Amino acid sequence: MAAKGKKSTELAPLAPISDAPPFSPQFPGISYADLASFGRENIEAAVKANAAVSAGIEAIGQEVMIYARTALKTASETAHGLLSARTLEDVVRLQTDLAKRNFDGLVAGSVKLSEISVSLASEALAPWEGRVEAVIAHFAYPQPGKSPSP
After folding, report:
1. CA 117 to CA 52: how far, in whole Å?
2. Which positions ≥6 away from 81 have C-beta within 8 Å?
3. Whole-model pTM?
4. C-alpha distances out from residue 46 to 105, 108, 124, Å
5. How far apart, in whole angstroms, are the C-alpha atoms of residue 117 and residue 110?
6. What separation in angstroms does the CA of 33 have from each of 29, 36, 46?
7. Residue 23 CA to chain centroid, in angstroms?
8. What count of other Cβ atoms lies within 10 Å of the Cβ of residue 52?
9. Which candidate among 14, 44, 65, 129 keeps its CA 20 to 30 Å from the CA of 51?
């Protein structure tokens, strides 16, 4: 039996690496300091927006709790009234009064939540106003007094 030749597991040598510098994109008029500055400003805007969202959600939660307490108090008062009602007319009057108070409370609560939500949206977006325009204006158009990097 003839011995089978072993296949070589050695890799072929790689071609020599050229002396060319590594690829580095060049953006005219943009420096690392510019990028760092815009990054810092964007992070500051994000932190401010996050703080506004957090405060707004807390305010919404407090308003919902106030509405829930009021609704429970109204329902409790109505239940006590129903237990002491003597006639069907008293029961109907109490139920009608409960429905009116719940509807008024719902409308008032909805108005308050809408106001808080609009305030939350405007406060959360305020730090971002002008950020996109500033970045586009700086990076898309050549800056006066700066020559493009070769």
Report:
1. 11
2. 90, 94
3. 0.64
4. 36, 33, 9
5. 10
6. 11, 5, 20
7. 36
8. 19
9. 65
Q: Whose structure tokens read 């909805």?
A: 110
Please list, in sequence order, all residues whose beta carbon lies within 8 angstroms of the beta carbon of residue 28, skipping any fewer than 6 positions away.
Answer: 142, 146, 148, 149
Domain ranges across the chain: 32-140
What the block records as the tokens of 5 is: 């030749």
Cβ atoms within 10 Å, residue 141: 9
DSSP 94-108: HHHHHHHHHHHHHHH
Per-residue pLDDT of the chain (150 residues; tens, 9 = 90+): 555 656 656 666 655 555 555 555 555 666 778 778 888 888 999 999 999 999 999 999 999 999 999 999 999 999 999 999 899 999 999 999 999 999 999 999 999 999 999 999 999 999 888 887 877 777 776 555 554 444
